[in-house]
């Protein structure tokens, strides 16, 4: 095993730990912003992380990252990925798609599972106080095995059809944030359907109950955790990993002075840079950082007008809009020299760096990828909760239903 | 210095930091489960960590890990280990027993001291509210210099008599958890002797006073800290370190939905896998994970029948029973190919993998090692507190004695 | 890229993250010791970190670490450092002063920016409740671009005039702690001038309002963070980095049993070892650790007699006095063999190790460096706040002024 392989595995493993810490942070965010009980948050975090490890090990790691069937979905029976090799000692082999960097199957599994886990936690925020925990648990299994796996298989898996078209999404503007937003939208729509059926005119809002201490802990943990989010995605500790760290830190300067805007400012900056952190210069990152605040505020106002849903922590203006915006910006701000260092030598310069026709073509590919992925995730997510609703007599908590019609107050997690 | 040596040292050093964080987590567990004041917990954590660094540096690192005298105990005067070389610059040399991995004396010292520290913190939990802090401090010195050092010298030190017989204990099912349990038992017996002498019929229970916030922080910190516990024990960042990480995460799925069971479920899973994490497949780890819950619950009921002691955080059903169970399972689940990758090429396959007679022999060795180690640690621990009780007119707090006879309420840390 | 370069960059990057965590910890210290609102602390931490990243990227990294103009100040227009190369992909090149270790510009930038950030956070503690936040923000820009940059350019920059004389300061006894103390003194003096002008005879004390929970979190975070402070300063993960870690941990044993003394005991130990951690043996580190407590207590009494200022968290007895003491001790305790391993082969043995005349000369150089640096930082810091006071009609909060004259109670952050 060469020195570079050793260092790469160590690096990616540590980044996986940092990303894993972000699942914890999302749980604490629910405590700090929405007054969720801390034990409820802990149980949910353990449920999400535990299911992610288990479902991804059994099949989700394969459906997302094994050699694909026709570019559509990873082969679920691919040997090294199926339950991580089961009882076979073959797990230590390098994972097929990163043999150059020498990442072991276990390393790559943990890193990607941490990503899957944090996207599920983001989806879980819109389910808070509204969706039955049992429904959310079953939904999680489908999400991990299939819903999340599709955009990952298309874009991050080198044999995916979008990847082959040339689509890139560095650390998951679409695969992580956009997909979480689209999946959440599918759930929120079903919640509204049930609320409407109960005669509500407006979706019961989940009120803010800010607990500054837990909010602060959540923000600090997210901040530290993100340290591993973007740099780890280079999937190899090469020169460019460092550039990415610098850029990530850059964007942390775009904050505003209000506890809720502090968290959203940090998050928005981090979300927007996610899909292109490995492709742009520090100067471009600063410009992108400066654009984040206005975009979030405009998107939040737009979303806020929708009376049929409640989005207390900005999943749609933040993760969905921000993630998509960042992916689009690849076609404007990318510089081939940075992208080459990050392992994407085929990515052309963006429109602002003389990319011309190639950049326009890249923009088209990214738009295509965004459209197909968002629609697919939304439809699958909504179908899943529709089926669950049919089987479970609705996915919303019965307690919530009672309380809503009487007082409008939020119900505890079912 | 070769690249592999660089990466190995960096890896083990980081793992040491994670293990060190677990000592902090045990302190916060006392706050979150037993209502200990947070400053009291902090002072105790600093005391334990500080004593561990100091006593281990002066002599405990040698008694545990220096070349042994007849396989029984490390030579306390071995040069590089005695106060880490004192004023001599020789500290940077490789530690004798890990010259292959190239670990420096300082790296190895910090890693093992973090282990010693966390076992002492576990012992400290049964002393909470019952034992004089001064008595516990003196006990700690003996524990670090001698009591803990013995099983470490026998099993982890390659020149130890049990190691030479072929006993293995990957990351400390016996050396860490079992020994902590046996040592705690020695203390608890003396506490009961003093309580009985004061006329009590039943040991005053230390009541649960759950603080969900601190309990949550403690669990999350334990979880993150364990990340470094098992993988670091490979003592070299090789392919297998990664397998271990995957396995560790696997077991995190075995939780139950109650704040106290959440913590115990996580702990039990982590404890049981500790002694064999480097030897088994992901599939075996999952099976072991599934066995943890029932074992803990049965053991807790068994321990709960004993009226002469109070074990509020499950040191005996969790760490003692779970650690011993995990060590026994080596002879059933081990696979030579995994063990070879972890640096134990002599370990035979377990009974479930066709080990046959060799596996039976291994089972015998492990049982012998468990028996001798548990008895030795228990006897030495109890003798130490007996001597302390004679010198200090009892090891229990006088305040506790007063309160007990009148109200049965727990007393603050003396 | 060689294996050693890979490991060095990974190591320094991780250490940068740990140092960055200390800025967070200083913010929580204000919450835990002085009752600052946790959201106020969070906003201040984000402000400080954000400004540090931005100002250092634009110019401060160059004024401190670019090739100097006549040994006095780094060339602000040096290409790779000026806004980290702006839109140019040249950022990935190795930084000029550490080409041997192969550190990339981005790695080195993040590591040093984390240091600048934490020193600014230390200065911010004396401004708490007293100085307008707007004034502190403007002050921060000058501090990062110029005030902090000067001692860094003189001592840490290899082309600085003090570095060329032979002055050493391993991890910043003077560059970090001493400079923060001197800068804080410049602010405190201006606060006193404004308080005196309002007719006060004694500076309004900022009272202790201890919150044990946050104090505990702050201490634990500082402790973990320091793990990266000293070892990272080797700026290369070589054998000696490990020695440093061992020494850092050593000093953690010098604590006392009172929440405020616990934090100050830990801090004092860590501060004093900072400037010489890479140069001394474990034995010397222990002796230095034993000296820390008495020095702090004596210095605190001395500072406490001054009625014209308020120093609630010991910036002057701790960071200023402790940092200077540690730097002086280089000439007594250094051992050339350790220093050579840390990359300072020219440092002679200290007086206690037969250094003789060379050690005396080293002592003279260190005293010269301390004197010039402390005076320069103090004067520049004071001039900055004098100018700000003229422009903003005083730097103290108007609310503070009102409250002081009536009740003497502390005012919230302006």
Task: Tell me what the structure shows.
The structure is a homotrimer of 414-residue chains. Helices cover 67% and strands 1% of the residues of chain A. With 414 residues, chain A is mainly α. Chain A has a two-stranded antiparallel ribbon. In chain A, strand 1 (68-69) and strand 2 (73-74) form a beta hairpin. The radius of gyration of chain A is 20 Å and the shape is globular.
Q: What characteristics describe this protein?
A:
homotrimer, 414 residues
Largest interface summary: A-B, 44 and 44 residues
Number of strands of chain A: 2
Order of helices and strands of chain A: HHEEHHHHHHHHHHHHH
Structural class, from secondary structure content of chain A? mainly alpha
Spans of chain A of at least 5 consecutive residues whose pLDDT stays below 50 are 235-243, 248-256, 402-414
Share in helix of chain A: 55-70%
User: Number of helical runs of chain A?
Assistant: 15
Oligomer: homotrimer
Strand order of the largest sheet of chain A: 1-2
Q: Strand percentage of chain A, roughly?
A: under 5%
- Taking all Cα atoms into account, the compactness measure Rg of chain A is 20 Å
End-to-end gap of chain A: 50 Å
The overall pLDDT average of chain A reads 83
**In this structure, how is the largest beta sheet of chain A organized?**
2 strands, antiparallel
Q: Given the C-alpha coordinates, what overall shape of chain A results?
A: globular
Question: In summary, what is this structure?
Answer:
Three copies of one chain form a homotrimer. The first copy, chain A, has helices spanning 3-34, 38-65, 105-127, 133-147, 149-156, 161-165, 173-197, 212-232, 239-250, 259-273, 282-304, 315-333, 336-341, 356-392, 398-406, and strands spanning 68-69, 73-74.
């Amino acid at each position: 095993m060469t020195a570079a392989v050793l260092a790469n595995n160590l690096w990616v493993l540590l980044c996986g730990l940092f990303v894993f810490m972000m699942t914890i942070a999302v749980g604490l965010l629910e405590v700090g912003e929405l007054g969720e009980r801390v034990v409820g948050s802990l149980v949910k975090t353990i449920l999400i992380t535990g299911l992610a490890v288990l479902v991804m090990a059994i099949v989700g790691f394969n459906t997302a990252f094994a050699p694909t069937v026709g570019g559509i979905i990873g082969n679920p029976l691919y040997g090294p990925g199926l339950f991580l090799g089961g009882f076979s000692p073959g797990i230590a082999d390098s994972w097929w798609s990163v043999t150059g960097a020498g990442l072991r199957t276990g390393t790559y599994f943990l890193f990607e599972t941490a990503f899957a886990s944090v996207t599920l936690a983001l989806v879980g925020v819109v389910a808070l106080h509204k969706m039955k925990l049992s429904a959310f648990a079953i939904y999680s299994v489908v999400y991990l095995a299939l819903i999340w796996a599709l955009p990952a298989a298309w874009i991050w898996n080198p044999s995916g059809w979008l990847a082959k078209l040339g689509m890139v999404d560095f650390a998951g503007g679409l695969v992580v944030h956009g997909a979480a937003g689209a999946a959440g939208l599918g759930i929120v729509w079903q919640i509204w359907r049930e609320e409407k059926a109960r005669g509500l005119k407006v979706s019961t809002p989940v009120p803010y109950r800010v607990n500054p201490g837990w909010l602060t802990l959540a923000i600090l943990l997210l901040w530290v955790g993100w340290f591993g989010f973007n740099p780890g995605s280079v999937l190899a500790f090469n020169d460019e990993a460092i550039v990415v760290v610098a850029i990530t830190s850059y964007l942390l300067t775009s904050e505003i002075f209000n506890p809720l805007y502090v968290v959203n400012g940090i998050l928005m900056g981090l979300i927007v840079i996610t899909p292109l952190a490995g492709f742009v210069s520090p100067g471009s990152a600063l410009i992108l950082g400066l654009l984040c605040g206005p975009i979030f505020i405009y998107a939040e106002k737009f979303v806020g007008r929708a009376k049929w849903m409640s989005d207390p922590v900005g999943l749609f203006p933040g993760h969905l809009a921000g993630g998509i915006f960042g992916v689009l910006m690849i076609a404007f701000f990318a510089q081939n020299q940075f992208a080459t260092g990050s392992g994407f030598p085929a990515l052309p310069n963006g429109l602002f760096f003389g990319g011309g026709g190639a950049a326009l073509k890249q923009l088209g590919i990214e738009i295509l990828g965004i459209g197909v992925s968002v629609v697919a995730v939304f439809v699958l997510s909504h179908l899943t909760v529709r089926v669950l609703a049919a089987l479970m007599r609705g996915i919303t908590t019965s307690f919530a239903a009672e309380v809503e019609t009487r007082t409008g107050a939020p119900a505890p997690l079912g």
